[in-house]
């Protein structure tokens, strides 16, 4: 057991701050050779897209595996095992850090590591042991919906096949060893005390740590030895999962959560798109990606909506704005990029992911289309358009107006 590789699994609702936490920990001084597996909800993993090559994540040397288009708690369970099995063959890392998708249920992920999985030949216990289950909780979302937080506490119906994300959230809270109460900067201290009290009642065993932008000591989530198999086995969820099996094979579909990606290779009108971002339907629970705002050819704008917060603004650089040598490096390593490269505009474009429950996708798509420059506008002087996004990093749009 002692020479098996420890595994930490990060769970947490969509937009709670898992990636932010992961970035923070990976760039901190942790002393491990970490391999990372990221499971993102949605067809494409925008977090890993090329404009973000400059992000902190890619500046670290970690081996990163991405699994999109499904959840590692269900459809991708076997795939996950195969991937970590292949990783383990080389053994050139000594820690495995997993970020599961926002709607992944933590128990099946834990069971996959502790018990293996019937459809996979690889037995993960030969190489790995589960060290810490971490849940990232969005303190601001809890604060905003404190009433529903109470409903959560009363809800013992985490069984059956009609599980909804609130119940997944419940599982994420109840089945973890460390609870990161994130986004504490957005919530008054006395409210945080109350939220912490609720969390403590729901999961007395977990260590609760308050964080802002995922800034946590690596030792809080790495090699803590806190995962307790005996304890886990006693939890109702664990037994239920074993008795009934993990029936669904697509958590997203089951929860009515869907995602779509909007792509375009022409710019968006800054005022129209800012207005749309400020008025996104509430059924859209998460949106992210990057876009080209007409008149701001110098910078890749990012969108980041998590719950009620909508932030947009400069996020990264287009590869087309990099010095030629660096540009060549990207183009050589990314064949897709070369294919999509526009002679005049390079990689500038729009790629936005929208995740929601029962939202009208075609209506949203039509609105987005309307925000693209028309053929006529393409010939105008874009520099005359007012720029609602400014020069700062992504800033809050919706909250500022409330
Ligand atoms: N104000 C504030 N914003 C935060 C904090 N942590 C993260 N955010 C922002 O919240 C948004 C979502 O953060 P992510 O780290 O991408 O969340 P995630 O859980 O990985 O999201 P998914 O992968 O889509 O499930 C981003 O805009 C972050 O900058 C925080 O502590 N305070």
From TrEMBL:
Residues 257-372 form the CobW C-terminal domain. Signal peptide: none annotated. GO terms for molecular function: hydrolase activity; nucleotide binding. It catalyses: GTP + H2O = GDP + phosphate + H(+). Keywords: Chaperone, Hydrolase, Nucleotide-binding. Residues 383-402 are annotated as: Disordered. InterPro entries: CobW-likC_sf, CobW-like_C, CobW/HypB/UreG_nucleotide-bd, P-loop_NTPase, Zn_Chap_cDPG_Synth. SMART domains: CobW_C. CDD domains: CobW-like (cd03112). Belongs to the SIMIBI class G3E GTPase family. ZNG1 subfamily. This is GTP-binding protein. It comes from Halorubrum tibetense.
